[in-house]
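Researcher: Quick sanity check before group meeting.
Model: Go ahead. Protein one:
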Amino acid sequence: MIDNPATTDFGFRTVPRAAKTALVGQVFASVAPRYDVMNDLMSLGIHRLWKRRFVTLLNPRPAVRLLDLAGGTGDISLAWQAAGGGPVLLCDISPAMIEVARRRAVARAALSGLSFVVADAERLPLPDRCTHTVSIAFGLRNCTDKAAVLAEARRVLRPGGRFFCLEFSRLEIAALMPLYEAWSFRMLPALGRVVAADAASYRYLAESIRTFPDAETLADMLGKAGFARVGVERLSGGIAAIHSGWRL
């Protein structure tokens, strides 16, 4: 993690904080058309199981409103609706990703109850205490000021509301680390080059996983943001983790 307030990480590079949002925007504008295909290839389809578990923990109900931060191509929002959840607002900083989500919703006749907003999760254009549940799946590591995202998530939650984060974490099985490293830094850029004609963006995505806080550090960040009863559920040997916290 970079302590200099003027700089931050962009993968393994150190960049001015003011530049990261635009750089991340370029990555997702590039990968949006093939993002869902690449997710399946990158994770060998396991991301679907992680997201299924994530949505189960979200506990969708008709009277519950969801804010889906960094909602990307709509996996969580659409699964929430399919499971019987209430109104959902999909928020993402990338118009290209939101357009993919919109097309997916149209194809599934799932636009009813689904709204979209292009916005930075660090500065949400939403009133205080306006939603019951906030989710962010594989998006927090791409944010410049992660503490600001957590603070905004708590601000827009109603008392008694809950925040959930699904994100890559630290593999805890040492024997698998060489294979995991080879997959991340050799195969992912190669797949990105072949499937999405963009090796650099997928190299960044692999690097961003390594610079993201481990599960214990992220849990501590939730506590410092004011969330109570913080919980952590590790997935697939620690490759990913679900963090949760309540606004009391």
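Researcher: Fine. The other one?
Model: Protein two, sequence then structure:
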Amino acid sequence: MFKKILVLSPHTDDGELGCGGSIARFVEEGSDVYYVALSACEESVPEYLPIDILKREVKKATKVLGIDNSNLLIYEFDVRSFPSFRQEILDTLIKIREEIKPDTIFTPSSFDTHQDHRVTREETLRAFKVCTILGYEQPWNNITFDTTAFIKLKEKHIVKKIEALNCYESQKDRTYLNEEFIRSLAKTRGVQINSDYAEAFEVIRWII
């Protein structure tokens, strides 16, 4: 497990927000980590910014976390329209599965209310039935959350996560990108397992 990891991010920055600290830890420990962004949200980019700004930012952010540029895949599904592209997304994930052959998947949780996130999670389960699947936490989208798995983190991993999120200058006004919030959530999850910091996950599928 955790030798070849696939992080599925509906939109650029979801992966970093949900499991950025864990990505930093696994890269440090020698895991081969792939990051897939299904949308760069070009339809939502303000007119005063370059249309590809989020593609630029996700490249910087994943580099900070230690992900090789060749392991970053960006697709162009329309933001907030994933339910209309369900089959195309499933076909894309199956193709990724055959090319990468990951053992562990990080995807949005079953409790995520965003329509794009829900479709990503549902099609993840269809495409990666033989993989361990962990659902990452995004409290601003979750009504509730099952903390059924924890990954212990150190200060250096949280610093990397914050540095990666700081690459998203176009999103800096988002309250969930606030450093104090990122640290406090990681500290809260750490307290639950007697660790300095942690990220919590829902166990969607566990292959031993």
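Researcher: One line on it for the slide.
Model: The radius of gyration is 16 Å.
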